[in-house]
Structure formats: C-alpha cells, structure tokens
Specification:
single chain, 1 helix, two-stranded antiparallel ribbon, Porin, mainly beta, 16-stranded antiparallel β-sheet
Length: 263
C-alpha cells in the first residue's frame, strides 16, 4: 500500500496518467499518395484538459493515400518535462475515411498507439497504451460536426468527444480563419499500472481555438494557431478511499506554430 500511496501522490502533484496526443483526422481528397512532414512548436503541451509539459517540439510524419492515412507524432519537451511520460512521447496512428454522402457525411475508424520510451511502471506510468476510435463527420451550413468515441484497452475506459469546425475565408490575405471547438469526457478504470485495487481517473475538458494557414509554396504551408483549453471535474479514486483532484487539470492558452511540407 505504501507503493500505491506514493504513486498516487506523485500523480496528483502534476504528472498525468497518459500523455496521449490526438491523431489528426484524415481528409479524403484525390486517390494520389503523398507524405507530409510537419515540424511544430507549442507553448504548452495540453491533452484532454491536462498539462503534460511546457514549451515542446512536436514533429509529425504522415503518409496519405486517398482515404487512408498513417503517421507518427512526437512530443519532445523543452521545459517542464514529465519524466518517463512526455519525455519523449511517440504516437503511431492510422485512419480510413469512408464517404456515406459525398461532401456531407463520412465515417472514419482509426487507432492510436501511444508510446513512452522512458516510462517506468514502478513510477506509475505505462510504456504504451492502445486506443481504437471511431468518428462520424457531418457537414451542414459550412460547419463540420465530428462526434468521436475512443476506447483505451490499457487504461480500460472510453473517451467521448464532440468537435465543431468552421472556416472564415480571408481572401485579401490569401488565408482563412479556422475556428474549432471541442468538448470531451473520459473515464478510465485502470489509470495506473500494477495497483490493487485499481486507481480510476475521470474528467471533462474543452478546447476553443482558431488557426490561420499561409501557403508558402505549392508544397508547403505555415500555420499559426491559438487555443484555450481547460480540464474540469478531473479526479483519481482507489477502492473505497475518497476521490482526489488531479492538479494537472488546468486551463491554459496554447500558441502553436507549424510548417507542413508535402512531398
């Protein structure tokens, strides 16, 4: 029990239970194939309402072929590292988008494998988790709604999200403003490895953001974005003990700059 108490204390002091990053949804276009390399920098590493680190380098590499996409995303923290978790993190993902009604309704099954090379179970972290997902994309009046359901087979629990996206053209500036809003909730029943009884973790979160993409060349694009995201009602609980608030669930503004190169 002493080991369990030490792990729980470390987690509520600021270390999150899963430093996952959501995979970017695939957008079906032509049946041609391409690679997209995207180095990016972010001012805060926030995921599902939990702060997992400070300024970070977040490169990704994705292969697209028609409606099929696979890729890898990484987080390398530059400050406020969470040892054994987001230091570093590599996420491998894939998705396939199937049109039900062209340009209006589609369904996209996918999967993400989150890996943490330096994680140690003795410190309360998993080295990897496995999370399939299913998204439904519906566009009406220029607004794209995307309800999405995830289930992590290692953390043993679901996450449900609803995202709405809307683009406002800025023709004079040769760009647009991409507005995004997300609300989500999760509940994991095995949030920490090798504990008895299991440690549960649950909570809610939301994100409101805007981004502006700028075409630098035919095959490259610079995007600047800002979002505010916040976690709430985020707690840990073990057995019959009382619930304990997760202090990593906070509200933060996040500035992101990325440069996508297609080849």
């Amino acid at each position: 029990m002493k080991k369990i108490a030490l792990i729980l204390a470390a987690l509520v002091a600021g270390a999150s239970l899963s430093a996952q990053a959501p995979a970017a949804p695939a957008t079906p276009e032509a049946a041609s194939s391409s690679w997209v390399f995207t180095p990016a920098f972010t001012s805060q590493y926030m995921f599902r309402g939990a702060r997992l680190g400070g300024p970070s380098f977040e490169p990704s590499l994705e292969y697209d072929s028609g409606s099929f996409a696979v890729g890898v995303w990484a987080n390398v923290p530059l400050k406020d590292k969470v040892d054994g978790q987001s230091d570093p993190e590599f996420d491998f993902y894939g998705s396939y988008t199937m049109d039900l009604v062209k340009d209006t309704l589609s369904i996209a099954p996918g999967v993400t494998i989150y890996t943490y090379p330096n994680a140690k179970k003795a410190n309360g972290f998993y080295k990897a988790t496995f999370e399939p997902n299913l998204a439904l994309n519906y566009t009406v009046g220029g607004v794209k709604f995307s309800p999405k359901l995830y289930y992590d087979f290692v953390l043993k629990g679901p996450t449900a999200e609803l995202t709405a996206a809307y683009a406002v053209p800025l023709k004079d500036l040769s760009t647009e403003l991409d507005f995004t809003g997300t609300y989500g909730t999760f509940k994991w029943t095995s949030a920490v490895p090798d504990t008895s009884p299991d440690i549960k973790n649950w909570g809610n979160y939301y994100l409101l953001g805007v981004a502006a993409p700028f075409q630098v060349s035919k095959d490259s694009k610079l995007t600047v974005g800002f979002a505010y995201t916040k976690g709430s009602s985020n707690f840990f609980k073990q057995g019959v003990a009382g619930k304990v608030a997760n202090t990593a669930a906070v509200g933060r503004g996040v500035l992101t700059i990325s440069y996508a190169i297609t080849f």
